[in-house]
Design brief:
alpha+beta; 3 helices; 13 strands; about 55% strand
C-alpha cells in the first residue's frame, strides 16, 4: 500500500512540475522531445491537400445550354493554407466562354470552423478582363450551413461582393439533397463588363446527388438564375434573357 501511495505522490508532483510534459520526469527529456516531434509530424503537423469539384454540370438554360464548373482546393496545415478557387460558364452552341475566373488566396483558420481568406482574383472572361483584390470568410455556420462570403476591389476601383450558401440534407447514407443560393452585388456601375450597382445576379438551385463513393457523386437538379437592376438592363440590351430556369445534370468529386 505504501508503494502505491508513494507512486501516486511522485506522479502528482511530477505532473505539477512538468505540467506540459509530465513524462519528462520519468524518461530522458531529449528522447521524449524526439517522440513528441515524431507524433506531431504524423498526427497534425503534416502538409495536407484537397481538390473539390463542387459542380461540373450541364445546364439546359432555356435552349441555350451551358457547361458550368465550380471547383476549389487547398494545400497546407491545420491553421494556414494556400487556397485556390475557380468557376465559370461555357456556351455549348456558341463554342465560347461566357464567364471564367480564378482565385489564389491565403487562408488562416480563425476558429475551428471558419477561415479568413485574402488574395487575388483574375477574370479571364468577360472582356475586358479584370483583376481584383479579395478578402473573405469561409466556413460552417451553426446547424451545418456552409457559407462563403467575399469582397472584391477591381483594378478599376470598383467594389463588389458575393455570398454563397449551401446546405445538405442526408436522405440516406448515399443520397443527398442540396439547396444552394448565390448572390452577387456591386457598389458602382461597370458598364464595360455589364455589371450595374446594387444586387446584380442571383442563382438558386436544388440538386439531388447519389454518392457512388464518397469521392464521386453524380447528381441531377434544377437551377434558376436572374439579373437585377442595371445589370438586367445591360443583359437585355445585349438581347439576352434576364431570367432563366435550367435542368441540370453533373458530377461532384473530390480527392
Amino acid at each position: 500500500m505504501n508503494r502505491v501511495v508513494i507512486s501516486l505522490l511522485v506522479t502528482f508532483i511530477a505532473s505539477s512540475v512538468f505540467a506540459q510534459n509530465a513524462a519528462d520526469a520519468f524518461y530522458d527529456p531529449a528522447e521524449m522531445a524526439k517522440a513528441r516531434a515524431a507524433l506531431k509530424s504524423n498526427h497534425g503537423g503534416q502538409l495536407n491537400s484537397l481538390i473539390l469539384g463542387e459542380r461540373l454540370e450541364y445546364q439546359s438554360n432555356d435552349g441555350n445550354p451551358l457547361s458550368v464548373w465550380e471547383a476549389q482546393g487547398w494545400v497546407g496545415g491545420d491553421i494556414q493554407k494556400l487556397w485556390f478557387k475557380t468557376e465559370g460558364e461555357y456556351e455549348v452552341d456558341e463554342g465560347r466562354f461566357e464567364e471564367a475566373e480564378v482565385q489564389a488566396l491565403y487562408s488562416r483558420a480563425i476558429s475551428p470552423f471558419w477561415d479568413l481568406q485574402a488574395g487575388i482574383r483574375h477574370d479571364i472572361k468577360p472582356d475586358p478582363s479584370r483583376n481584383y483584390a479579395v478578402i473573405g470568410a469561409q466556413g460552417l455556420a451553426p446547424y451545418w450551413f456552409e457559407f462563403d462570403g467575399q469582397l472584391f476591389m477591381s483594378d478599376e476601383g470598383d467594389l463588389s461582393a458575393r455570398l454563397e450558401a449551401e446546405y445538405e440534407f442526408r436522405l440516406t447514407q448515399r443520397l443527398m439533397l442540396q439547396p444552394r443560393l448565390e448572390l452577387n452585388g456591386a457598389f458602382s456601375d461597370d458598364e464595360d463588363i455589364g455589371v450595374g450597382s446594387g444586387l446584380s445576379t442571383a442563382a438558386a438551385g436544388l440538386r439531388l446527388r447519389y454518392e457512388i463513393t464518397r469521392e464521386f457523386a453524380p447528381y441531377i437538379g434544377i437551377s434558376w438564375n436572374r439579373t437585377f437592376g442595371k445589370t438586367q438592363d445591360f443583359v437585355r440590351a445585349e438581347g439576352e434573357d434576364s431570367d432563366q430556369v435550367s435542368w441540370v445534370a453533373g458530377v461532384r468529386f473530390w480527392f
